[in-house]
Write a structure and sequence with these properties.
The chain is an alpha+beta fold. Helix content is 19%, strand content 40%. It has a 4-stranded antiparallel β-sheet with strand order 1-4-3-2, with no helix packed on it.
Length: 220
């Protein structure tokens, strides 16, 4: 692959002979045409990788709003969603006998600065969930302007028939607590709970989210 400098009439684009001129993030580059073997049967590994990629893309697509805040700076030269794809494909998607599945303990709604939460607690009161935390207040964290970081909370259902719940940019991390409305369920259901923090100062900063375990909701 090679970069192309703009000439008097601008950079070329499209297929030219055996090469293709492409543009990505204002960078024009040239690459050779891919070699296509028509009718080639995919190997088991290729089929599994395709299945894993498709599963991850579909699963994560439900939470794009969270990733746009929580993965902005996880990978350079990647969109936030692609960065989330990269993280989850590497760390949080398992390939078992039944196909790809999510490792809920590794799933994340944000990645960035090292997690600074040293303890958490949860309590359900009147169909609402209260999350409390204690931040590790260090010089490093204070230098990152603690007040700019606000909560991201996600309740992720284990049963895909139920709807996820959560919020974006809630209370400041300094407030040490956040209350969210719980979803209605028609049977006893398990939800995986995640807590993250994203800055609101336009810097696109975020902290590593925390997996807070399972919240079980009962039918009213």
């Amino acid at each position: 692959m090679a970069r192309v400098n703009n000439g008097a009439n601008g950079a070329p684009s499209g297929k030219v002979g055996a090469v293709v001129f492409c543009k990505w993030k204002d960078i024009t580059y040239v690459r050779s045409l891919p070699k296509v073997k028509k009718g080639r049967k995919l190997s088991d590994i290729e089929n599994k990788n395709r299945s894993k990629f498709a599963f991850t893309q579909t699963f994560l697509g439900q939470f794009t709003k969270f990733f746009r805040l929580g993965f902005q700076r996880y990978k350079e030269n990647m969109t936030a969603f692609n960065a989330a794809m990269s993280y989850h494909l590497e760390h949080a998607v398992l390939l078992g006998e039944q196909g790809p599945a999510i490792n809920y303990e590794k799933f994340a709604i944000s990645r960035g600065l090292e997690n600074m939460i040293i303890s958490t607690s949860t309590e359900i009161v009147d169909d609402k969930l209260e999350i409390k935390w204690e931040p590790k207040v260090t010089k490093e964290l204070l230098n990152h302007e603690l007040i700019d970081f606000r909560t991201m909370v996600l309740l992720l259902p284990e049963d895909p028939m139920h709807t996820s719940a959560g919020l974006l940019l809630g209370n400041s991390i300094e407030q040490r607590s956040q209350i969210i409305e719980l979803p209605k369920v028609n049977s006893s259901s398990m939800f995986h709970l995640y807590l993250g923090f994203a800055a609101t100062d336009g810097s696109n900063r975020s902290m590593d989210s925390v997996y807070l375990g399972i919240v079980t909701l009962e039918k009213e």
